[in-house]
Amino acid sequence: MATTSPTETEFGEVSRIKGIVFKYISFAASIVGILALGVLLAYVFWDALGLESAGTGWYLAYTGTLLVPLLAFFAYARTRPAVVAGTFELFSMTLAGVLLTGAGVIILSIIASPGVWFAYFLTVVGPIVGLYVYGQYDREATWVGLAMLGVVLLGPVVGTLGLGPLTAVGALLGSPGIYFLSLVVPAAAVAAYLSAERLDFSRRRSLGIGVGLPVLAIAAVPLVDTVPAISRSVWLIGLVLLGLPAGFAVANTARTRERWPAFAFPAIVALGFLAGEAVVTAIGATPPTPWLDWQYVTSGPSQTAAEAGLYPAIIGSIFLIVLVSVFTFVFGVGAAIYLEEYAPGSGPLAAITRIIKVNISNLAGVPSVVYGLLGLGIFVNIESQLGPFTYAGFGVGTVLTAAMTLSLLILPIVIISAQEAIRSVPDSLRQASYGMGATRWQTIRNVVLPRSLPGILTGTILALGRAIGETAPLIMVGAATTKFSPPSGLFGKLTAMPMQIFAWAFEPSDEFRYGVVAAGVVTLLIVMLTMNSVAILVRNKYQQEAN
Q: What are the residue boundaries of the ABC transmembrane type-1 domain, all occurrences included (predicted)?
């Protein structure tokens, strides 16, 4: 007769108890961590928005007009995944459009004049976009990837050599003409493509959307001219960078009946703010006095806290993140593709490959200040030793020096995340591609990269989120803690948001150390959270396509 062993029974009971204890300890740790983070963020936002100065009437007014309707909407959407997805898409795409518009206006008006932008659009941006579109149309054109690489390498050289005549041609068109040809016309083609391929619109309807965008850009000019704060150039940039993502989100939400209630979210927010402002004005309630306002993001540092701003640091951070994203994506993903797809798996070279992989993993854990010293030793000291032979003259505290140093910092993280994403693609898919006669490059381009792209992009953007918040490497390469003007170019001096916040933290005035610093932290958090949101959207989008 079979009997249950006491040892087995006791072992099972002990494991069950341990599992229950571990479950509740993990739950308690998660709650504590979330509450601690929530308290910290609430404290920072409280100081940055100046909510302590608001009167009771202001809180009551906006509670009734905005907070209660939003809570009711969230309670309604909680059990409806389609409504949640539509709401998140509308919010994130609109926010991304607003940030892109701001960054576009800043970059196109500060980093490059309209004429310079036109020159490099003709020699770099336009050809790359055209080749990409052709590659999507003709999947069998194996030369497209090499052609894009050639444009990346030779396009800037051609644009620089032809800068004079191309800038002269751009001057004949004027700023609105340049932005119309280089932004609105390509955006019209993108809108038509997205309407047909992503939204499943008919060809006639997609063509109408593509034609309608330039028509709207021209037809709205008389109305834009009546608004002094908005120029024609800003209107064209905003129409493309804000209108395209927001319009896509609206159209994608509208085509699914289950998502229609998501439109209540922007309506509640807009009408709630308007109604709250009307009530506050009617009852004479005291509004908050926020440190984070329009003046804060459009002015430079000042000795007076009320007049201090973060504008030069914001521009410096935009310079940095654009360059770092280009450097890390090209070199990081390229290195990961070689190590996973081309590096030999046996023989003497395989041992070297394993050593490289181990060293990359170790470099991911090196403190950031060490990378600052590395940037100081490589990118700064080399100039002082080469003297007049230094190309372009980049050195201490310049945009290019800081960007390359931060690229070194996150490059191991990007390589490792890209390797893991590429490694997750099943070998059976590769073998199936080879079995159909595809070459190794065709297999990588058409099979491996589309399947691994969600992980690659997610890891890259999260790594960029770390780079934009780093301070120690910038201190080591001589970035300014306070600068009263934005950088003039890639070889100009810069400061960044973390550096300026670091400088304000040591001011003796409480207004600086609490109000101004809190506003800077919130600005930095908004940028980082937006980047993380983009990472989630990109990952989900490509995961759905891969499945």
A: 314-535
User: Which of 136, 129, 93 is CA-nearest to residue 540?
Assistant: 93
In the numeric block, which tokens belong to residue 263?
């439109």
Beta strand spans in 139-261 (E):
none
Exposure of 298 by Cβ count < 10 A (0-12 exposed, 13-18 middle, 19+ buried)?
exposed
Burial readout 161-197 (b: 16 or more C-beta within 10 A, e: otherwise): eeeeebbeebeebebbbbbbbbbbbbbbebbbebbbe
Q: In whole angstroms, give the CA distance from residue 521 to residue 514.
A: 10
Q: How far does Cα 130 stand from its chain's mean position?
A: 23
Give the C-alpha distances (Å, rounded to integers) separating 140 from 134, 286, 442: 10, 66, 9
What is this structure's pTM?
A: 0.74
162: tokens are 């032809």
Q: Which domains does the chain have, with CATH numbers?
A: 55-287 (no CATH), 305-426+452-546 (1.10.3720.10)
Alpha helices (H) in 505-516, listed in sequence order: 510
122-139 residue pLDDT tens: 888 888 888 877 777 776
- Matching residue, tokens 């908050």: 288
Average pLDDT of the chain is: 83
* Nearby residues of 392 by Cβ (< 8 Å), 6 or more positions away: 400, 490, 491
Helix (H, G, I), strand (E, B) or coil at 481: coil
